[in-house]
Amino acid sequence: MHLNRKLALGVVTSLSLFLATACGSGGGGGADADGISGDQLVFVNFGSDGLTAAKAAWLDPFAKKTGVRFATDSPSDPAKVKAMVEAGNTTWDVIDLDIGSGMKGCGTLYEKRSKAVDVSKIDPSLLADDCGVPIIMQTLALVYNKAKFGDDPPTSIKDFLDTKRFPGKRVTLNYAAGGLEGMLLADGVASKDLYPLDLDRAAKVVKGLGSDLSLVPSLAGQSEALESGDFAMCWCYLGRAAISEEHGADLGVVWENAYSGWDMLYAIKGSKSPKAQQEFLNYVATPEAQAAFTEQLPYGPTTPSATPDVPAGRAKWLAKGHEDEIGTPSLLDPRWWDKNTDAAFAAWTEMTAG
């Protein structure tokens, strides 16, 4: 699958497109409540503000519409999914995953999308496999502590590695997907040359930063680091940075070579409520549901016709309006991650150990 970079960036920043008229079986987000009222689904994502947003945008409205009850858990853990499916004891039902982890389990750990799931409103370039529903476009970029640098802030992604001119702690999520891309972009790899990821080069970058690199275990940890003020720079998820700014963090952002990827929502095999799983995926695939999430947490929708109403203070953290600063956008390559997920995560674990 060849990704259209301009199209994907348009999806990331989709705030000004008109809402298309709903049509087809999934149009308008209506789910057939017959046979699923009273079912329970356990929804899993990476937690913190993302879980709060999912509950407000998706879980509560779907529950009200259909009578399906929800429990939640976090963080997403593909290894836990594998263990429960292989043991025949599935206790999670729907999970938000990075594409690499999801694609590897399509058909074995995750159900293929049924005919009940209408993905016609989703940007087709984002449909990485036959199982998941693309849900959120996440942008990472260099975020810096404005109070620390004053009138001489970082202006390039490469400044992430310049610990002499810009001393202080560098923060990033302890996660290979997105983390590896950030290290390579900071080391000067051009967006067009990002894939295949050079794992050895990324390891040299990580080792070179040494104790200046601070790995946080969760996106909640990213928020805590930003809001504490105890950091110099962060290779950050911008949606979460927007919330941290609202909580008082004094933040600036360098848009150069901002990196965008998208999560997928998967129905885990072995669920006791398979129809409810598919109906929920269908609900989330609509422009209305996607817009509702963006209104809760400023990540872009995967449906180009979505028209979220985002306050200006949050909208500034979306890529819309920053296209010239970004230049050539850096976009996730799902084919590479599908083939290299295990090796990439193993390499990340090794290079960040100790």
Automatic annotation (TrEMBL):
Domain of life: Bacteria
Protein keywords: Periplasm, Signal, Transport
Signal peptide: 1-22
Chief place where the protein resides: periplasm
Subcellular location field: Periplasm
UniProt name for this protein: Extracellular solute-binding protein
InterPro entries: SBP (IPR006059)
Protein's UniProt keywords contain DNA damage: no
Keyword match Iron: no
Xref: Pfam families: SBP_bac_8 (PF13416)
